[in-house]
């Protein structure tokens, strides 16, 4: 049977890589593309939808609807816009849905897809950080499968194939260290958005690139590891690995460690999720280990990167603290990109927001529903804005 595919965030970095793989694997000849979503880049969304002969193209923003409709005129692809249209796209029967919207905006469509028992390829780490217990419970209750697309989590997933999760002693997530890994701390405080937006190893969207430089990306990934694999936070470690070739390692109780090694190319993790449980030939570079020569590792220092310390706090608190952490981080990132706060002040904003909302954060994973989480996300952004205006 032809596999039915939906891509949320098709015009982004993960989305483009997903479209590239689908195209290489036969495109519309092989797959039924149910829906593609994008944001403001409606010209590209229309191009993708036409090339893959999608049934539906959705822009998240109502003000972009007319442009999308015009770009699709005569193509036979239906156009739609707005948050409700994203939900309706998630309601259309599909076998494999890529969740690659950036930010907490990815949560609602992903949750909706899980309710239909669909396989969700999850790049949108923010939804696990914001609503991990709810997302995992929704998948379980509906017989849906979540396949990790974040490279580290795909690596862990692959290292765990055929293993007993109870035999896992530790999960080690690697971090490139981002744009400022070799900068003196004094200089980092003055880093500009342009400097933070270039990654030494990976080509990604701007927001995750800046999050890599601040280590908020790694902080999100530690929380993501706890939520997805259900591992005790004390067993989750981060290590800096500047070459970005080892994506994660799993240590077992007999002392053995399985490392996942590969080039820094997201098409591996996306292609793995697309073809799972099979492995297809993928267009990623093959490593020449003798040429690479050595792989290096350094401690991921929580003083240098306070985001890692905050992730520990969030993992210990559980409950709604992940939603506060992510919402405040997104607002702080906006403020940094708008040059309202300095690079290191993003940490202060998130820490202060967690404090401001400490009474709201319920220290239990059992009290979550989607409305409470979305409300918490809103409160977190408000709290962060309050802190930012005081810093400003
Ligand atoms: P991009 O910024 O490149 O793309 C984001 C996508 O979401 C685009 O299609 C964009 O549309 C769309 N979008 C933006 N804002 C909204 C909104 N408010 N509502 C709905 N759609 C929106 O991001 P990435 O591809 O880099 O990242 C996507 C997700 O994958 C993130 O959660 C990220 O953390 C995760 N991830 C990314 C990796 C990477 O290599 N890039 C690696 C691991 C995880 P448009 O551009 O048309 O405006
Ligand atoms: Mg990652």
Automatic annotation (TrEMBL):
<feature type="binding site">
    <location>
        <position position="199"/>
    </location>
    <ligand>
        <name>1-deoxy-D-xylulose 5-phosphate</name>
    </ligand>
</feature>
<feature type="domain" description="DXP reductoisomerase C-terminal">
    <location>
        <begin position="262"/>
        <end position="382"/>
    </location>
</feature>
<feature type="binding site">
    <location>
        <position position="152"/>
    </location>
    <ligand>
        <name>1-deoxy-D-xylulose 5-phosphate</name>
    </ligand>
</feature>
<protein>
    <recommendedName>
        <fullName>1-deoxy-D-xylulose 5-phosphate reductoisomerase</fullName>
        <ecNumber>1.1.1.267</ecNumber>
    </recommendedName>
</protein>
<keyword id="KW-0413">Isomerase</keyword>
<feature type="binding site">
    <location>
        <position position="41"/>
    </location>
    <ligand>
        <name>NADPH</name>
    </ligand>
</feature>
<dbReference type="GO" id="GO:0030604">
    <property type="term" value="F:1-deoxy-D-xylulose-5-phosphate reductoisomerase activity"/>
</dbReference>
<comment type="function">
    <text>Catalyzes the NADPH-dependent rearrangement and reduction of 1-deoxy-D-xylulose-5-phosphate (DXP) to 2-C-methyl-D-erythritol 4-phosphate (MEP).</text>
</comment>
<feature type="binding site">
    <location>
        <position position="124"/>
    </location>
    <ligand>
        <name>NADPH</name>
    </ligand>
</feature>
<feature type="domain" description="1-deoxy-D-xylulose 5-phosphate reductoisomerase C-terminal">
    <location>
        <begin position="146"/>
        <end position="229"/>
    </location>
</feature>
<dbReference type="InterPro" id="IPR036291">
    <property type="entry name" value="NAD(P)-bd_dom_sf"/>
</dbReference>
<feature type="binding site">
    <location>
        <position position="125"/>
    </location>
    <ligand>
        <name>1-deoxy-D-xylulose 5-phosphate</name>
    </ligand>
</feature>
<feature type="binding site">
    <location>
        <position position="151"/>
    </location>
    <ligand>
        <name>1-deoxy-D-xylulose 5-phosphate</name>
    </ligand>
</feature>
<dbReference type="InterPro" id="IPR013512">
    <property type="entry name" value="DXP_reductoisomerase_N"/>
</dbReference>
<feature type="binding site">
    <location>
        <position position="205"/>
    </location>
    <ligand>
        <name>NADPH</name>
    </ligand>
</feature>
<feature type="binding site">
    <location>
        <position position="217"/>
    </location>
    <ligand>
        <name>1-deoxy-D-xylulose 5-phosphate</name>
    </ligand>
</feature>
<dbReference type="GO" id="GO:0051484">
    <property type="term" value="P:isopentenyl diphosphate biosynthetic process, methylerythritol 4-phosphate pathway involved in terpenoid biosynthetic process"/>
</dbReference>
<keyword id="KW-0560">Oxidoreductase</keyword>
<comment type="similarity">
    <text>Belongs to the DXR family.</text>
</comment>
<dbReference type="InterPro" id="IPR013644">
    <property type="entry name" value="DXP_reductoisomerase_C"/>
</dbReference>
<feature type="binding site">
    <location>
        <position position="221"/>
    </location>
    <ligand>
        <name>Mn(2+)</name>
    </ligand>
</feature>
<feature type="binding site">
    <location>
        <position position="126"/>
    </location>
    <ligand>
        <name>NADPH</name>
    </ligand>
</feature>
<dbReference type="InterPro" id="IPR003821">
    <property type="entry name" value="DXP_reductoisomerase"/>
</dbReference>
<feature type="binding site">
    <location>
        <position position="13"/>
    </location>
    <ligand>
        <name>NADPH</name>
    </ligand>
</feature>
<keyword id="KW-0414">Isoprene biosynthesis</keyword>
<feature type="binding site">
    <location>
        <position position="14"/>
    </location>
    <ligand>
        <name>NADPH</name>
    </ligand>
</feature>
<keyword id="KW-0521">NADP</keyword>
<feature type="binding site">
    <location>
        <position position="40"/>
    </location>
    <ligand>
        <name>NADPH</name>
    </ligand>
</feature>
<feature type="binding site">
    <location>
        <position position="150"/>
    </location>
    <ligand>
        <name>Mn(2+)</name>
    </ligand>
</feature>
<feature type="binding site">
    <location>
        <position position="152"/>
    </location>
    <ligand>
        <name>Mn(2+)</name>
    </ligand>
</feature>
<feature type="binding site">
    <location>
        <position position="12"/>
    </location>
    <ligand>
        <name>NADPH</name>
    </ligand>
</feature>
<feature type="binding site">
    <location>
        <position position="221"/>
    </location>
    <ligand>
        <name>1-deoxy-D-xylulose 5-phosphate</name>
    </ligand>
</feature>
<feature type="binding site">
    <location>
        <position position="212"/>
    </location>
    <ligand>
        <name>1-deoxy-D-xylulose 5-phosphate</name>
    </ligand>
</feature>
<keyword id="KW-0460">Magnesium</keyword>
<comment type="pathway">
    <text>Isoprenoid biosynthesis; isopentenyl diphosphate biosynthesis via DXP pathway; isopentenyl diphosphate from 1-deoxy-D-xylulose 5-phosphate: step 1/6.</text>
</comment>
<dbReference type="Pfam" id="PF02670">
    <property type="entry name" value="DXP_reductoisom"/>
</dbReference>
<feature type="binding site">
    <location>
        <position position="11"/>
    </location>
    <ligand>
        <name>NADPH</name>
    </ligand>
</feature>
<feature type="binding site">
    <location>
        <position position="39"/>
    </location>
    <ligand>
        <name>NADPH</name>
    </ligand>
</feature>
<dbReference type="InterPro" id="IPR026877">
    <property type="entry name" value="DXPR_C"/>
</dbReference>
<feature type="binding site">
    <location>
        <position position="176"/>
    </location>
    <ligand>
        <name>1-deoxy-D-xylulose 5-phosphate</name>
    </ligand>
</feature>
<keyword id="KW-0479">Metal-binding</keyword>
<dbReference type="Pfam" id="PF08436">
    <property type="entry name" value="DXP_redisom_C"/>
</dbReference>
């Amino acid at each position: 049977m032809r596999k039915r595919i939906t891509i949320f965030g098709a015009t982004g970095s993960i989305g483009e890589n997903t479209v590239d793989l689908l195209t290489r694997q036969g495109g519309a000849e092989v797959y039924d593309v149910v829906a593609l979503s994008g944001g403001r880049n409606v010209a590209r969304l229309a191009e993708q939808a036409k090339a893959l002969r999608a049934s539906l193209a959705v822009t998240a923003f109502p003000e972009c609807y007319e442009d999308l409709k015009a770009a699709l005129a005569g193509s036979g692809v239906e156009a739609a816009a707005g948050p409700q249209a994203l939900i309706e796209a998630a309601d259309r029967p599909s076998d494999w849905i890529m969740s690659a919207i950036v930010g907490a905006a990815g949560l609602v469509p992903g949750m909706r897809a899980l309710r239909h028992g669909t396989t969700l390829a999850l790049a949108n780490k923010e939804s696990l950080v914001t609503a991990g217990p709810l997302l995992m419970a929704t998948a379980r209750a509906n017989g849906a499968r979540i396949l990790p697309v974040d490279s580290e989590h795909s690596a862990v997933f692959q290292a765990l194939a055929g293993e007993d999760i109870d035999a896992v002693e530790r999960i080690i997530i690697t971090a490139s260290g981002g744009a400022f890994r070799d900068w003196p701390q004094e200089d980092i405080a003055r880093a500009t958005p342009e400097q933070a937006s270039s990654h030494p190893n990976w080509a990604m969207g701007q927001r995750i690139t800046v999050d890599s430089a601040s280590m908020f990306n790694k902080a999100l990934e530690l929380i993501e590891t706890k939520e997805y694999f259900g591992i005790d936070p004390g067993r989750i470690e981060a290590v800096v690995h500047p070459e970005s070739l080892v994506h994660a390692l799993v240590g077992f109780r007999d002392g053995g460690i399985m490392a996942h090694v590969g080039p820094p190319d997201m098409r591996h993790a996306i292609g793995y999720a697309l073809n799972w449980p099979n492995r297809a030939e993928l267009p990623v570079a093959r490593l020449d280990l003798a040429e690479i020569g050595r792989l290096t590792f350094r401690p991921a220092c929580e003083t240098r990167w306070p985001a890692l310390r905050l992730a520990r706090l969030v993992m210990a608190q559980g409950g709604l603290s992940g939603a506060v952490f992510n919402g405040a981080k997104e607002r702080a990132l906006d403020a940094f990109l708008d040059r309202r706060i300095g690079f290191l002040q993003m940490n202060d904003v998130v820490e202060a927001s967690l404090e401001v909302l400490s009474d709201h954060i319920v220290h239990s994973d059992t009290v979550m529903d989607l409305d409470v989480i979305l409300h918490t996300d809103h409160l977190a952004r408000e709290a962060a804005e309050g802190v930012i205006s005081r810093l400003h």
